[in-house]
Write a structure and sequence with these properties.
Length: 204
């Protein structure tokens, strides 16, 4: 169901509105690239959305592929890349059933895509992205992450998407394949989403 939402509602939103996450390249990615911790390589953005991270990486010498399920995200990505004068390879594909993406990447980036998926889709996502990696590939994962309270659990029984990983879920899902470093954690005491975490993972 969350795929349906991404494909149709997401496409509509990208075409006609400025989505709330259209906020430019993300802080942790910018710091890692500018500090030289992430250096130009073959990279892929999983759920590229408004393409801010793709454009930023391309501007800093990375070879970039962006994947999204929403066709208008692909169109927007090409427009943003052209405006910025960079080249990015955007591919319409489904991270739970990859058909159009192949090859091996040195860097994977996910800002807020995995956390929207249902648990079964998360399982499929993991099995689909692993073949895109090699030993030493890095994976920068940003996710909303907190322990859901009772009314959130009820809400997500009826909503067609999820919003957060459970604490410990990133380790449970990725720990056998990646060494995991938590590089940031933020708690939003008054607002919602309530907390986020950023992991830099290195494929074993
Ligand atoms: C919250 S947005 C984040 C977009 C982008 N990472 C950013 O930070 O601006 C999540 C994105 O993942 C895409 N998405 C969701 N499910 C997907 C799937 N199964 N395969 C590919 N893309 C998906 C959505 O279309 C959407 O563009």
């Amino acid at each position: 169901m969350s795929k349906w939402l991404a494909k149709y509602v997401g496409s509509f939103a990208y075409r006609y509105f400025r989505v709330p996450w259209d906020i430019g390249p993300r802080e942790e990615l910018v710091v890692l690239v500018k500090s030289g911790r992430l250096t130009p390589c073959r990279s892929i953005d999983l759920g590229s959305g408004t393409a801010s991270n793709c454009v930023f990486l391309a501007q800093h010498g990375f070879d970039v592929t962006g994947i999204d399920l929403a066709s208008s995200a692909i169109g927007l990505g090409y427009k943003r890349a052209q405006e910025a004068g960079v080249s990015v390879n955007f591919i319409l594909d489904d991270l739970t059933k990859l058909r159009n993406v192949s090859g091996i990447f040195d860097l994977l980036v996910d800002y807020g895509t995995l956390n929207d998926m249902h648990p079964r889709e998360r399982d499929l996502y993991v099995s689909n992205i692993l073949p895109l990696t090699h030993s030493g590939s890095q994976f920068l994962l940003y996710c909303f992450e907190w322990q859901l309270i009772w009314w959130e659990k009820l809400l997500f029984l009826v909503l067609p998407f999820r919003a957060a990983l459970e604490p410990g879920e990133a380790k449970r899902r990725f720990g056998q394949y990646f060494d995991i470093e938590e590089i940031s954690r933020k708690t939003n005491r008054r607002g919602w989403p309530r907390a986020s975490a950023v992991y830099l993972m290195t494929r074993k």
